[in-house]
C-alpha cells in the first residue's frame, strides 16, 4: 500500500512539474514575442530621431536663418545713440506694469 501511494505521489509530482514546465515555456515565448516587438519599436523610434535630427540641421542652416531674419525681424546694428546711462531710463511707478513714458503694446504679436 505504501509503495502504491508513493508511486501515485511521484506520478502526481511529475505531472505537476510537466504542467509547470509547459506554462513556463509559453510564458517565455510570450516574453520573446514582446521583446521582438519592443526592438522593432525602438528601431522605428531611432529612425524617426535620425530623420528629425536631419530636418533640424536642414532648417538651422546659417544662410536660411540669415535670410529669414532679414525678411521678418528688420534687425539693425547697434549705434552709439542706442546706449543710455541707467539714470536716463524711465522709472517704473508703483503699481504700473510698464515704465512711465513707455506705451504698453496694444496686443501680443503687434496685431
Description:
- By secondary structure, this protein is mostly helical.
- Helix content is 62%, strand content 0%.
- The protein contains 2 helices and no strands.
- It starts with a helix and ends in a 39-residue tail after the last helix.
In short:
The protein is an all-alpha fold and about 110 residues long. It has two helices and no strands.
Question: What is the helical fraction, as a range of percent?
Answer: 55-70%
- For the terminal residues, how far apart are their CA atoms? 99 Å
Low-confidence stretches: 107-111
- The total count of strands amounts to 0
Strand content: under 5%
Estimate the global geometry from the Cα principal axes.
elongated
Arithmetic mean pLDDT? 86
Rg over C-alpha atoms, rounded to the nearest angstrom = 37 Å
Please specify the SSE layout and strand pairing.
Blueprint (H helix, E strand, L loop, with lengths): L1 H58 L2 H11 L39
Task: Jot down its keywords.
single chain, 111 residues, mainly alpha, 2 helices, 0% strand
Amino acid at each position: 500500500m505504501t509503495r502504491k501511494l508513493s508511486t501515485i505521489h511521484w506520478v502526481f509530482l511529475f505531472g505537476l512539474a510537466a504542467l509547470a514546465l509547459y506554462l513556463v515555456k509559453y510564458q517565455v515565448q510570450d516574453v520573446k514575442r514582446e521583446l521582438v516587438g519592443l526592438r522593432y519599436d525602438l528601431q522605428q523610434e531611432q529612425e524617426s530621431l535620425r530623420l528629425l535630427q536631419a530636418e533640424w540641421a536642414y532648417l538651422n542652416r546659417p544662410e536660411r536663418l540669415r535670410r529669414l531674419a532679414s525678411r521678418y525681424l528688420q534687425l539693425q546694428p547697434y549705434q552709439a545713440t542706442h546706449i543710455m546711462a541707467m539714470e536716463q531710463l524711465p522709472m517704473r511707478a508703483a503699481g504700473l506694469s510698464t515704465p512711465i513714458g513707455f506705451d504698453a503694446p496694444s496686443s501680443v504679436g503687434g496685431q
